[in-house]
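Fold this complex.
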Amino acid sequence: MIPDCCRLVWAPMKYDRKTKTVTRVWLSVALFFSLFLAGCFKGHNGAVAAGAPISITLSTYSQALAPGGMVSITAVVYDQSGQGVTWSLTPINFGALSNPTSSSVTYTAPANLGTPTTVTLTAASVTNPNVTASTKISISPLITLSAISNPVTNQQVYSGQTINPGDQLQIAAVLAGAGGGAADVMWSLSPASGAGSLSLQTSSFVTYTAPSTVASPTTAVVTAQLVGSSATGSLQITILPSGAGPNVTTVEVNGGAVPGQVYPNAAFTSVTLCNPGTPICQTIDGVLVDTGSSGLRILQSQIPLLSLHPFVDGNGNTLQNCDLQVDGSFLWGPVSQFDVYIGGEVAGSLPVQVISSSSTTVTVPASCSNGGITNENTPQLLGANGILGVGPEPTDCTVAGVNYCNGITQPIPPNLYYTCPSVGCATGESAVIVSIPQQVTNPVPLFSSTGVGSDTNGVILQFPPASGNAASLSGLMIFGIGTEANNALGSATIFTLDSSDHFTTVVGEQTLTSSFIDSGSNGFFFPDTLPTCTVNAQYFCPSSLTGFSATNTGATQGEAVVGFSVDNADSLFATYPSDAVFGNLAGPEGKYNTCADGKGSCTFDWGLPFFYGRSVYTAIDGQTLPSGLPKGPWWAY
Amino acid sequence: MNISLLLDRHPRARWADSWFRPWQMAIALVILGVASPALAGLGGTLDSIRSDQSQMKATTRFSEAGAYSVYEMQSPIGTIVREYVSRDGRVFGVAWQGPFIPDLRLVLGNYFEQYSRSAKAQRESYVGRRPLQISEPGLVVQTAGHMRAYWGRAYDPGLLPAGVGANEIR
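Structure:
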């Protein structure tokens, strides 16, 4: 609806197209009224004219939707250059925008939410992005699928759970929001055959039975649709062929969960976060599995149902975390506690970094942003909905037994933690000392030992071979080393690490003394003379497939030869644009043959392609390992 | 700015504490021989370093390698920064190594804005996580590593002294 005060101006402005004489007159009028326009539209949550006679009028300025509901919004744009608008949503990713054009867009509300939420849809002029118009869309919650009880293990389980063939789960549907009563729903199972069955259905309960045998990991989705509504809730369950236990979950190299993006060579899993001690939970898929970092980091836009439980100091200031990346980008946001479920494991009250999703309202200290290269605060920029750091260290402050943030070894804190008032940090904010229980923590050492045994000492990532490229690849993440029947070390070779968590890789003439294994790197990265690509300049582009042989040597034990190949990244990406798996993807790190005395380009970064066809073990520093094995941290494969 | 006054106030100050404390950064700037607002680091001059050398013994190592000198500064949090200085007193290359990325505005000096623009353009041109490689006519930057173990170097090819190869910056 156009505010009345603005209609007065809007109407005559349309006439100025009719004759040149009239145009001149009305242009003057329009200019004269531009200040008036600005004030008027601001007051009505509408367009803000910025001096130039551009205006935007939306087809609606407020709208109520049910979960899963859709609405199309149209913009009438007055702009002499004929340009239209671009569309954006706040909070980012709460629901989805589709079919955007220069004058219209369709908004779809999330299918589930726990509390009433209002989103703001904004149209910004292409000619002058300062000219905007916004509409508020309010969405009320209806239903969520919640606590499932597993009669076999008698534990609560959540979406992303892996179970054995023949297992049964009891699932309940509840109304979300304040009431939280039983919902009146219709149940369904997808796929309809081969994924088990539903029985004992009532209006709010159902029993799911997994198939008695499966040949490969099989995914079933149980969905409840509220009677008389389009609102649904669903739970995803994966049945593993054999040896599945609560310590197993699936990982997928599938390009990721961000629409329109294919993230090559990245392993994703799903993680369930719950408000501590409550059944109020959300499952986040598209979370990058990263053995090169420690701690769970989740985009705030992905957990609208949850409430933050941040650490607050005596002055009421909130603890904030900073994570600087090698490529100059950074992650910023509060440290908040959640009960975190991964597969059947749970880390209670885990300190998690919640990545602040609204860059317009958050000031990041200059010592964190280190130049403000890229704040990775959207799924598009992050390439994921979060990062699951399951590396060889217990927190993001530690390396080789030294904690740099708790003030003991290092009295001056590094740029990892800040405490800031509710209005936000100052640009010149100084870092603070943080005790270990408040640091962003690798969830594995905090896994509960009740019921499932203690799988806290490490992680195994396991993938089938992929010599060339493929659309996708499914693997397993198994928790614990030598703690269950399914996670024995077997014949794997252990490579111990030096004081920087590195081992040595010899490739050709180079002895690279700062080498590491990192599932969060999406290729083999090392110094070499191979030509870099023209289009994808950060990768190698040899004229033909080039074979290499390298030798890895641990700090005190472990030696093995690794063969790998490097293909032309430009032709791979051009020929297979929708593939996510590239076993021969590599790129330059530093400069060839400049490593000496531990200085220079001394790194071979064994990224995700190294994991294809292997079981790679990461033993975490400070954790108890089976007798006879060296102390962590180490890698084994 | 009076360096002796600053150091008297903070007799135990160490240069590389400066990554995160403004007053320590001020000391660093002074020690690097730079009057505000220009920063030292890459492209800067180090005229005052020799006179301040006695104050920096605890954390700075100085070595000569023919056509240039190397100033190595180790912070208490373990990150080492090496500055490569030509005979005419100009920093033509920098390298860093350790558990934390140093303050790049300080280390890259007047090249920081160029680095920032290039790194941002690169980061937003692809999906993925990998080391940085900037190779432009006036600036080369390379980084590597992972959480709590970083390495990087930067230099201006145009500032390399005669007979000095870029490979020596590491």
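Chain A is about 10% helix and 40% strand.
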